[in-house]
Amino acid sequence: MAHQISLKSVGCVFICLAAVLWMPAAVYADGDLDDTFKPGTGASSAVYAMAIQPDGKVLIGGYNKIARLNADGTLDTAFAPSISLYDSVYTDSLVLQPDGNILIGGDFSKVNGISRNGIARLNSDGSLDMSFNPGTGASSDVGSVALQPDGKVLIGGNFYRVNGTSRYGIARLNSDGSLDLTFDAGKVDYWVNVVALQSDGKILIGGNFTEI
């Protein structure tokens, strides 16, 4: 099962073959494998999330935490953020910002040894962006992250609080990570798996909920 598919500008398609090979692969538009992309033995466990940088490098996240591959599939050893042991970055929760910084969401409590519950932002070198501070963060998993054009960040998941304030399943953060108190969707009765933005600014959510 492929957890995520991303397009590459040169006509290739990247596929996260999480359940089968635990590694990303690149295929051409006709389905042939791009054998110039060689991730070696791949990740040590499932890859759930992927984003392609403008320079061709590939960010991957999952139960293996988060890593960056060079355009040829080799590991970028200069990029080595640390996420709390046994935790994950989820499928729709790895977002590359226009400035090169990286939003990550998932089931984690620390990034690079600093408390970050479920949501964090990395600098382009993998260090924690300290200017993005969500406080106590989400009370449970963040399963999806979406970036608005104004820099605000939508998060969806299985949480009921964000930074100590009641927010059920969906919340919005300001560009500095603080909770946007002007956005309150009320109570979503179960997990929000995916959050997406329409061109008119309206927000689509999907998940296991039955009422809002």
Description:
- It is a single chain.
- Strands 1-2-3 form a 3-stranded antiparallel β-sheet, with no helix packed on it.
- Helices cover 0% and strands 40% of the residues.
- The N terminus is likely disordered.
- The chain has a domain of 127 residues: TolB, C-terminal domain (Neuraminidase, 6 Propeller).
- With 212 residues, the chain is an all-beta fold.
- The chain is built from no helices and 18 strands.
Topology:
Elements: E1 4-7, E2 12-17, E3 23-28, E4 47-52, E5 58-62, E6 65-69, E7 88-96, E8 102-107, E9 110-111, E10 114-115, E11 119-122, E12 142-147, E13 153-157, E14 161-162, E15 165-166, E16 170-173, E17 192-197, E18 203-207
Antiparallel strand pairs: 1-2, 2-3, 4-5, 5-6, 7-8, 8-11, 9-10, 12-13, 13-16, 14-15, 17-18
Specify the CATH homologous superfamily of the domain at 81-207.
TolB, C-terminal domain
User: Could you estimate the helical fraction of the residues in percent?
Assistant: under 10%
**Which structural class should the secondary elements be placed in?**
mainly beta
Quaternary status = single chain
In which order are the strands of the major sheet placed?
1-2-3
Low-pLDDT windows of residues: 1-25
CATH architecture of the domain at 81-207: 6 Propeller
Tally of helical runs: 0
Strand runs, count: 18
Mean pLDDT: 82
The H-and-E topology, N to C, reads as: EEEEEEEEEEEEEEEEEE
Percent of residues in β-strands: 35-45%
Strand count, sense and barrel status of the largest sheet are: 3 strands, antiparallel
CATH topology name of the domain at 81-207:
Neuraminidase
- Identify the CATH class of the domain at 81-207: Mainly Beta
Q: What is the CA-based Rg, rounded? A: 17 Å
Distance between the termini: 31 Å
Q: Name the shape in a single word.
A: globular
